[in-house]
Fold:
Amino acid sequence: MTPGLGHKLKEALLAIVGPEGFSEALIDMVSYSGDASEHSHRPQAAVWPRNAQEVAAILSLANQERLPVVPRGAGTGLAGAVVPVRGGLVMDLARMNRIREISLADRLVVVEPGVVFAQLQTALAPSGFSFPPDPASGKVATLGGNVATNAGGLQGAKYGVTRDYVLGLEVALADGSLMRTGSRCMKSVSGYDLTGLMVGSEGTLGVVTEITLKVVPKPPLSATASASFGDLRQAGDAIRQIMSSRFTPSVLEILDAECIKVLNRHAGQSLPEAAAMVLAEADGYTEQETDLQIRQITQAFAENDAQNIALAQSPEEAQQFWAARKAIGGTLFSLNNTMLAEDVTVPLSKVTDMLVGIGETARRNGVLIATLGHLGDGNLHPNLIIDGRDPDQLARAHRAAAELFALAVELGGTLTGEHGIGLAKASFMPLEHDETAMRMMRQIKRTFDPHDILNPGKMGL
Amino acid sequence: MQLSSEFRENFEEQILQCSQCGFCQAVCPLFAVSLRPAFNARGKMMVLKEALRGKLALDEQVLDSIFQCTACANCSHHCPSGVDVPGIVKAARREMSRTGSCHPAFTGLSQVLAQHGNIYAEEDPPEFQRLLNQPAEYVYFAGCVGNYREEEASETVLDLLDRLELNYSLIDEVCCGGVLEDMGLQAVAALAQANLERILATGARTVITGCPYCARTFLERPEYQPLRDQGIQVLVLSQLLAQLELPVTTDQRVTYHDPCDLGRHCGIYREPRQVIAKIAPDFVELAHNRDQALCCGAGGGMRGAYPKNSLAVARRRLEEVEQSGAEVLLTDCNSCVHNLRNAKLRKQKIQIYTLAEYIGRLLEGAS
Structure:
């Protein structure tokens, strides 16, 4: 049981946010104790600030009182980044949810951190513009959370990740001051890139209170193709050929043999059983443009012995192709009560090695691992599916995950392509980052947050 | 408080199945109006997981989470892990009621129903001046809202049934009793028994209900098994009207609200639209329709226990109606109509009716 805050501290917080903006209720403490990971710890209280001034005032108070503060968006993260492991305050930014400005002339939007990703896409849709990095949780996830975790999505290869779109930020710092970073310009080399430092920092350096995002026109047309491969190495060779060509697919996804089996058995699909199924999409402004690209892709499939190569003849048929990909997340979740959703990422040329290694790891540890992935950016999602109540299965899954991290790093890859470090991978940080880099990260953390109140216990710092 | 073995046996697996992805937050009407994750399905499942692990007791402290739910089923409909949230919430309420932690708005409900036969503790049943407890092909079952809160609407519906020359009888009805189980309370056997006897005595082969919730109760609950055994059909009004010629049309622009009990819970989307197609050529769909429909906020005991948030949910639905440009909002549930009418702001000029009431009014105007 986590003790509540002292009377004085509670009164001081109430003076900032008012009774509507503060809670110690058990149901709130429980709902703020976790995210989509297996980690859990209750906070002592929750606050719902409405503006940057309230955020700053809360941080200033927390800093004086050495009270941990964990900023939170929608809590859809998979790495435990918003779990308040040391108690303290959860700062839910959901009420700061206004889109302040859409300026197509400047090709940017200014939003508050609680704006939901899908809310921005809906607002942009009539103009034909979009903010491309689309996490699977986009209907729920907030832009503040996307910035804090540098969220990715399906279109990373062609359109990049959140970091590539953040032009500037307003950030509340641990001492209660507000800082503006970046600019409204497409280019700026003025000073250190504090914006870039904040993106992906998981709330350990400050609390983002306003975001200026670049938006880009969304090509209206797309073409979709799919193929299956009898051997992972053939799939890997096809991917290598595609990525070495002059074209970048807007989406390039893989489902491994386990995913295919699961979809056929549990989701009513009738996909050809194979080592892998690959789905590709090419977008553009004219049919000629999409056609040219998708034919390069299907040619690469054919030259690498793919089977069942199919080109969608209509948007409806394309939807059918994507149905398998869309169904996989939910189907995997429904297989058992616990899924460790990992996201190791490797250089494009090492994707096959990683996929083969994942299969070996699964067999070695006796754990079901179903892997999907964004091939265009080397980001793979091995999902370890177990009964979390069985300590033996849990231990084997964690061992398998650790082996996957080691393999990814050995292949020149990274622990996480988009889910973040949080708690889940905190202890693995030194595996990827050398001592000097770890020391510099810790010094940066201390510079911004000398009393370690901002999301403490995360990122192995 | 100890959780019952029945609860563990039937619901532990289901609750643990929640992966806490939070996707339900996108569709939870309570989250939309409160932005408080504790009210969302994931928040409820997290509370129940802690209860299963013995880390908290299901007592007054968790009332506002477990009892604050419209049972709209939009969460379970979108749940990647296939968690039956309304079923779990109902069971959790049963656990709480069993140990004396029922929501105070419902603690006396079983007694009220046993004594008065309706959820509002009203003494005098409405006098509709129609055949009562007589042999007929159909029984019309208005339900508590139709009898005691939307009587005028019910009168118009009965006029319509008269015009359509339907051979029906009313019965001395009492509450169908469905609400008790939703609140986690013991079913009152006498209620179902009384309705059953009176329906069967008419010899009717079909029961028409004014509320889809009553229809669900007749179709699903074990107490009403004799209806099913005797092959008696249970229909909501739009299912009946879809089969009939309707001698009236309108130029008004109309839209349709899918009641959760009829739509997501029963999968009935086509018939109401067939009825509308016969009478109103100028029909527009709401942005969220069919299985994606937004809730009216009335269900699951919300209107009684949390009126403020219940109305806030209804206002959100009405905003969407305004955006549609419709003059008339039609639905097929007295309870939805009641809550949406209560939530309507004076400046909102939308007219809100059940399909049957609207058609009845059109016919009255035409004659």
Residues 391-410 of chain A form the longest helix (20 residues).
